[in-house]
Specification:
Elements lengths: L1 H8 L6 H15 L4 H17 L3 H17 L3 H18 L2 H12 L3
Length: about 110
């Protein structure tokens, strides 16, 4: 898959997690057969964005991970990760994203 090559050949650390998150998102949206592979890529995105201190991207990583966990039926961990995303995005001043994910969080109640 060419996307894997893009990730493998990337030399720009600031987009490392971004690329991995989008690969995870694509896999998540293909079908449920790719959930495990998607989770692997999202976890790599979280690790990369933590290491590279890309906080906005890290918030988006956690939000995507929350979506994956919700699809897998783990509502508790999904809520937990969405909460992490909200806190990180608040620190970044990403108010629109915070509002979007806070609304989503209310659907868990």
């Amino acid at each position: 898959m060419p996307l894997y090559a893009i990730s493998r050949n990337n030399k720009v650390k600031t987009v490392e997690g971004y690329i991995k998150r989008y690969i995870g998102e694509i896999l998540l949206n293909i079908d449920d057969q790719h959930l495990s592979e998607s989770e692997h890529w999202i976890q790599m995105a979280i690790e990369a964005d933590q290491r590279n201190r890309m906080m906005f991207h890290l918030g988006k990583d956690y939000a995507l991970y929350a979506e994956l966990l919700k699809r897998k039926g783990d509502r508790f961990k999904s809520q937990e990760n969405l909460g992490k995303a909200i806190e990180i995005l608040k620190e970044c001043g990403a108010d629109g994203w915070v509002e979007k994910y806070e609304k989503e969080l209310t659907t868990f109640s």
